Amino acid sequence: MAMVQACGVRKATSTVVIGSARERERLKREAAKPVMTLKMVTREAFEVKKTGLKADCKAGRWMSPIELHVLPKFVRIPIGEIDQTDVKRMLSPIWRTKSDTARKVVSRLR
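Request: output the structure for the sequence above.
Response:
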């Protein structure tokens, strides 16, 4: 009986250790992934969108409101940490003075 209990304890302990090692490996892989920022995501979206824009001048104009009004405020913030309050705070200075630009920014960020 004592031998069975000892094996059971040993087996449960090894399972926890293996589970912990797997968890550490998973966390290590997640830490190695690059943190996606808004700048990275908008650049990727622009590259996809650029092929559908008719001329080079339109391609430059598509990205310029984002580069001027959005990216400077969210330079190194991971995209998962940006919420509605941050977007509202970013848009509020231009919403009254440059409402067309603000609308373009909102539509392009969707």
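The two ends are 65 Å apart (CA to CA).
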